[in-house]
Design a protein that fits this description.
Elements (H helix, E strand, L loop, with lengths): L2 H17 L10 H18 L5 H5 E9 L6 E2 H14 E16 L2 E14 L4 E15 L2 E11 L7
Parallel strand pairs: 1-6
Antiparallel strand pairs: 1-2, 3-4, 4-5, 5-6
C-alpha cells in the first residue's frame, strides 16, 4: 500500500474511533468479541513468553508506537524488543479492560486500559497502568495487528 493510500484510510479510522462508545461484553457483536479475544491472546502469549507471537500476530506492514520509545517500530523491531523484554522480565499479573471496539469490514479499532505487575531480573517488582489503541486487519480468517499506540500513562510506577 502506498503512503497516499495509507493517508486516505487514516481519516476513516479517526472517524470510527470518534464514534466508538464503551462496549460491554453483554452487548458485543460476534466480530467485537473475536477482536477482543485476539487482543487478549496476544497479551497472554507475551505473559507466557511465547516468542513466536509477533510472527503470528503482526501484519507484515505493522507499525506500532509505544509511549516509552522514541519512534514507531515495525514488525522486525517489535520482534527484537519483545524477545529482549521477555528475557529480562516476567509478567506476574495482568488485567485488560476494554473501552471500545469498532469493526467495519476487515478493519477493527480497539481502545482499552491495562494494568501489569512485573518482576525484572534483579527481582524488583513494579506495577504499571496504561492504555492502548490497536488497529487490526482481518487477513483471511485471522486478525492481525497493523498498528497500535499507547503504553503507560505516566513515567512513574504506581508501586
Amino acid at each position: 500500500m502506498s503512503r497516499l493510500s495509507i493517508l486516505s484510510v487514516v481519516p476513516a479510522i479517526i472517524a470510527l474511533t470518534c464514534i466508538a462508545k464503551p462496549v460491554h461484553a453483554q452487548s458485543w457483536s460476534a466480530e467485537q468479541l473475536e477482536v477482543w479475544t485476539f487482543i487478549q491472546s496476544q497479551w497472554d502469549a507475551t505473559m507466557k513468553k511465547d516468542m513466536t507471537w509477533p510472527d503470528r500476530m503482526l501484519h507484515d506492514r505493522f507499525l506500532g508506537w509505544d509511549n516509552d520509545v522514541p519512534a514507531p517500530r515495525n514488525k522486525a523491531s517489535t520482534q527484537k524488543w519483545s524477545r529482549y523484554d521477555m528475557e529480562n522480565s516476567t509478567t506476574l499479573v495482568q488485567e485488560l479492560s476494554p473501552l471500545g471496539i469498532v469493526v467495519v469490514g476487515n478493519t477493527a479499532v480497539a481502545h482499552y486500559a491495562y494494568s501489569v505487575a512485573a518482576e525484572d531480573r534483579e527481582g524488583e517488582r513494579s506495577t504499571t497502568h496504561g492504555r492502548y489503541t490497536d488497529i487490526l486487519l482481518k487477513d483471511g480468517n485471522t486478525w492481525r495487528f497493523i498498528a497500535w499506540h499507547g503504553g503507560a500513562t505516566s513515567d512513574e510506577d504506581d508501586d
